[in-house]
Amino acid sequence: MRKPFVAGNWKMNKTVEQASLLVADLLPGLQAVNKIDRVLCPPFPALMVLSQMTAGTEIGLGAQNMHWEESGAFTGEVAPAMVKEFCAYVILGHSERRAYFAETDQTVNKKVKAAFAHGLTPIVCVGETLEENEAGKTAEIVRREVLEGLKDLDPADAVKLVVAYEPIWAIGTGKAASAEQAEEIIAKIVRGSLAESLSSAVADQIRILYGGSVKGSNAAEFFSMPNIDGALVGGASLKADDFTKICQAAQDTIA
Ligand code: 13P
């Protein structure tokens, strides 16, 4: 049985002060949905304060990126051990990182291995662009991202992975994939490629999320699908009531 998982990717939003206010609003609702894993991924500067605010709760924290090296001359980057001081999770390979910051399957793979080496759980994002989708290349792209980005993992680590299928055309557009479309890609391509590179026994234990315009009003449809184990939420994770509603839907539908 895969435990439902809902993470909020705040992207480049909220100062430390604004982040504290949002978490104060979120805490009561999130503490109540205790049958699922719920994770907040604020920008780096807010992690320290949020780790204090969430101490003693089961609410997890995640970073939105990190470097794979231990330390050194990498101006502007954050090392795995620095993330680990505050977080149990790290989002890797988000499509915005791939598009604007030149991340590749190869750098994602290095980061995933570094995350496991430091006891962090990676939330690895995969997904196709609108052009790739319209050209019928979804399966090819998503399979490549899974096989290359998650190459050569120890199965004992791989079972802890969280993978998010986020079709890029559905991110921030208000145009979510249909639950059936998402289920089909997640079951056949994401879980299928994980089974191909690891084993079906391992693939069956990996939690796979859908991401892209998930809201309180559409979350339950996704969660009712057998292969969708939760959501990676962008815009709606910045609103306490909407994010809590999504977590509640995961608990009611899957848990
Ligand atoms: P939206 O929920 O704003 O579409 O963003 C999805 C996303 O990119 C989460 O990582």
Properties at a glance:
single chain, 255 residues, alpha/beta, TIM Barrel, eight-stranded parallel barrel, 8 strands, globular, binds 1,3-dihydroxyacetonephosphate
Ions, cofactors, ligands: which are bound? Answer: 1,3-dihydroxyacetonephosphate
What CATH calls the topology is TIM Barrel
Enumerate how many helices there are, as a single number.
12
CATH class reads Alpha Beta
Low-confidence stretches: none
* CATH H level, superfamily name: Aldolase class I
Question: Which secondary structure elements does this structure contain, and how are they paired or packed?
Answer:
Layout lengths: L4 E5 L6 H17 L4 E5 L5 H7 L6 E4 L16 H5 L4 E4 L2 H6 L4 H13 L3 E6 L3 H5 L3 H12 L5 H4 L3 E4 L13 H19 L2 H4 L3 E5 L7 H5 L6 E4 L6 H14 L2
Parallel strand pairs: 1-2, 1-8, 2-3, 3-4, 4-5, 5-6, 6-7, 7-8
Helix pairs in contact: 1-2, 1-12, 5-7, 7-9
This protein binds 1,3-dihydroxyacetonephosphate.
The site of 1,3-dihydroxyacetonephosphate has 14 residues, from strand 8.
Question: Can you characterise this structure?
Answer:
The structure is a single chain. This protein has 255 residues and is an alpha/beta fold. The chain has a single domain, classed as Aldolase class I (TIM Barrel, Alpha-Beta Barrel). The chain has twelve helices and eight strands. It has an eight-stranded parallel beta barrel with strand order 1-2-3-4-5-6-7-8, surrounded by five helices. α2 links the parallel β2 (37-41) and β3 (60-63). α1 packs parallel to α2 (47-53) and α7 packs across α9 (179-197). The longest helix is centred in the last third of the chain and has 19 residues, at 179-197. The structure holds 1,3-dihydroxyacetonephosphate (13P). The site of 1,3-dihydroxyacetonephosphate has 14 residues, from β8.
